[in-house]
Design goal:
With 345 residues, this protein is mostly beta strands. The protein contains three helices and 20 strands. The longest helix has 10 residues. InterPro entries: DUF3048_C (IPR035328), DUF3048_N (IPR021416), YerB-like_sf (IPR023158).
Length: 345
Amino acid sequence: MMRRYLPIVLIVLLLAGCGTRTATPTEPTTPETPGQSTEKPPVSESVHVPEPEPEPVEPTLTTDPVYLLAPSAATLWGGPVSVVVENSPGARPQAGVNQADLVVETLTEAEITRFFTLFWTKPADKIGPVRSARQGFVDMADAYNTPFAHSGGSAEALAMLRAAWGPRNLDEIYTAGGYFYRTGDREPPHNLYTSTDLLGQAIVDRGIDMTSVPTTARSAAVPTVGDHTAVDVFWHRLNEARWVWEDGRYVRYTDGVLHTDEEGRPITAVNLLFLGVGGVNRGVDLGWTLYLWDGGPATVLVAGHRYEGTWRLEPGGFVLYPPEGGQLPPPGARAHLGAPDHRRV
């Protein structure tokens, strides 16, 4: 069967560092002395002085390989764990996508996309709608060595999971239904959800041996803006995504509408990564087969600045490699990947 070369899009959501405002200390209370006047002297009206905005800087670059998942040193919720989340119109708005460290969007069958989401640094009270697995999602979960939550899957994906995954295979239909739930506000299959609490309990109950993924340094600097401030990703005439640079971040629009989560927050990014990967559409029963272990070319956009390199999926996850004599920016805290077929980005 002939392979088709797909432009696969990896969009890294870099969260800029946020300063915290120190609370104003409360003045001590002095007990009143008999005969002492309680009248306070007039206080001049305070003037609010806004905090200065961070000065934009050029993006930080490195000649080292770049792992695409780099959590902070803060206490982790207990992951990593990965979940398949639906992205058809009936599934929107989704829950938990903004809490994920890594979001991988690929075609499943026809022109429908789904998200492979990986949770590591932040808990999520609600994740979903949860849908079925595909071969590419299984390969990604395998690379990151995470428990994998899904609801059934293609014949190829289920065969891979049953052959070697054991307790890490958190399948709502066959092996782990108690760690998922359905809501009454949507019709099936768009109403199946889970949470990091439920998945954490599954890890404990099933005795899953948890491991960590590689970590690298990341920059919280606010970059200057380059020329690449809008990107269109064409999946199908009824399924298009657009990323527009607004207020220091790329904001996602899907089919011309702002793409938000259940809490009304837009899906945003500071880094966009476009990867090339081989693949073939094997029909309704199997969906797309993606040759992720082969790697391919990579284009990285950081606040409108463009960089070229290559990528591979390795034990430990997605890795970017700078070209000979070149550099790439370090990763952010969250990543989003998509596969827009053979058409255009």
